[in-house]
TrEMBL record:
InterPro entries: AmpG_permease/AT-1 (IPR004752), MFS (IPR011701), MFS_trans_sf (IPR036259). The chain crosses the membrane at residues 20-44, 83-102, 108-124, 145-168, 191-209, 247-264, 290-312, 319-340, 346-371, 383-405, 411-432. Its main location: membrane. It is found in: Membrane. This is MFS transporter. Gene3D superfamilies: MFS general substrate transporter like domains. It comes from the Bacteria. Keywords: Membrane, Transmembrane, Transmembrane helix, Transport. It is a multi-pass membrane protein. It holds the Pfam family MFS_1.
Amino acid sequence: MITQTEVHLRAAPGKPSPLFWVPTTYFTMALTYMTLTSVTAIMFKNLGMDNGQAAEYASYLILAYTIKPLFASFVEMYKTKKFFVICTELAIAAGFVGVALVMSLPSYMMIMMLLFWLISFLGATQDIAADGVYVTSLDGKTQSLYCGIQSLSWNIGPIVAAGGLVYLSGKLHTDFFHHDPKVFGAEWMDSWRIIFLIVAGITALMAFWHMRTMPDGAKAENTPASIGDAVYILRDSFVTFFQKRDVWLMVAFAFLFRLSIGFLEKIGPFFMVDPVAKGGLGLSNESLGLIYGTYGLVAVLLGSLLGGVFVAKRGLKPSLFLLCCAVNIPNATFLLMSIFQPESQLLITAGVAIEKFFFGFGSVGFMIYLMQQLAPGKYTTTHYAFGTGLMGLCMMVTGVISGHLQQLLGYTNYFVFVMLATVPSFAVCWFAPFHHKEDQVTSA
């Protein structure tokens, strides 16, 4: 007997099963995003940038992902969604090849940053088109069935990028090129050039794979027929968004919920690799890749799973403040590590895993709040994107200034500041409005 699940797992006649393209699509999206926003920060640090510059340069690359709702409607107008996925993946691959090549030039930094900036807009467009293929090619039941596969596949991206690629950069630098891993500077270009060529190769391979396996994607019901229609829809979505009851409290929630995490995101890894004499822990890239990209990510995934179960049983409104505590209070592990500077990698791993587990546990509340309270209305999908865009804006702003603040304060005082930055998060959770029932079905 064939089960209902097996029916939805099978492809329609003449079409590849979603199993052939959903996992690879979301993995490729995550690989691009994590390489740009996290891996580059470590590379800048390795090349000898101070914390202020390294965090600032990497944070600017979040901008395109933050503003992608502004140009999503225009992507919908032309060709097919598959066409944009394939074109952006090939262009991203070419962009990373270009990064590897320009690193050989005497004055490479400006050209490299321009290429990274271009890749970030290509990556944001890739996200828009790929999500469009998923939403328009699969019916509601199949979307729900593949939601877990989609999420898991995306989370493999950080494992490969923040874990595998950072680890490999250290191994190449030390074992293949025989450079001193404790000295930051131009010698690190040898290993990072190979890393970017690997990312380019994976992305190009995925593009050719998706040529064969990905469906074209259908036009959405509200797809604009002209540039004028696209501008009208964008304007109307803004107007209706700011007409929501207590919208400014919800905007504050979306922007401030992860404020302390924004200050911690770039500085945490820098703290790990900086020498003990500078207040860091003196870890290698290999150790950083294992701790952050493997153990830390497993902790995030486990925390997210348990957080979802917790909210499902208890409800979001009575859980939200506890979830905020989970996101913010464990940041104290970095303060403790900066005070005692443990040498044991087991203790360091435990500290990172605790922070990441509770971050994953608490962050579930943020996403559910956006879905259930901020998004409902005429443009549910667009308004949800506005909410995640505000969160991305917070990550960019805090990332840009975080390195400069750390240099000014030193690691211990900076992590005290991170704890103080949790106060706005608690405030917005305490005053967060609830105007929709949690089981309410929102309109499209």
